[in-house]
């Protein structure tokens, strides 16, 4: 069994993909637009004018696959009740990734030393996705 994250960007998926490629070095593994769906969508599923929006995409971020979509293309993203945790090798990488994710976003907890990490912080990115950035302590997990 496997549990994966599936983020719905309500019309801003392509923008989010470009952001995560730059901020995290994400690699696009797969991208399908609504107009490329081999089956006709159910009535009302694809709003008129949304044919070029992202029906499904997969990003590889480090060793993890994150799935994304434009969903119903309402323009109103609603992320809440969860946080993605980004574990990085050291403090320098934590600084870089935290700053990149925070560009256009909001810092919830500034990066700092904790009892469990030399560098930990929380940030909400420009799309409303919350991230915990954690540098691994010396010697591993």
UniProtKB/TrEMBL annotation:
Pfam families: 3-dmu-9_3-mt (PF06983). InterPro entries: Glyas_Bleomycin-R_OHBP_Dase, PhnB-like. Residues 3-134 form the PhnB-like domain. Coiled coil: none annotated. The lineage of its organism: Bacteria, Pseudomonadati, Pseudomonadota, Alphaproteobacteria, Hyphomicrobiales. This is VOC family protein. Gene3D superfamilies: 2,3-Dihydroxybiphenyl 1,2-Dioxygenase, domain 1 (3.10.180.10). It comes from Vineibacter terrae. PANTHER family: PROTEIN YJDN, PROTEIN YJDN-RELATED.
């Amino acid at each position: 069994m496997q549990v994966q994250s599936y983020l719905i960007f309500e019309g801003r998926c392509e923008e989010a993909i470009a952001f995560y490629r730059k901020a995290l070095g994400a690699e696009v593994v797969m991208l399908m637009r609504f107009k490329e769906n081999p089956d006709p969508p159910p009535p009302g599923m694809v709003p008129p004018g949304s044919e070029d929006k992202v029906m499904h995409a997969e990003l590889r971020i480090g060793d993890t696959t994150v799935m994304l979509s434009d969903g119903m293309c309402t323009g109103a993203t609603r992320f809440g009740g969860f946080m993605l945790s980004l574990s990085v090798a050291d403090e320098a990488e934590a600084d870089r990734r935290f700053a990149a994710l925070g560009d256009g976003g909001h810092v919830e907890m500034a990066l700092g030393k904790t009892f469990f990490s030399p560098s930990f912080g929380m940030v909400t990115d420009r799309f409303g996705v919350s991230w915990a950035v954690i540098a691994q302590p010396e010697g591993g997990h």
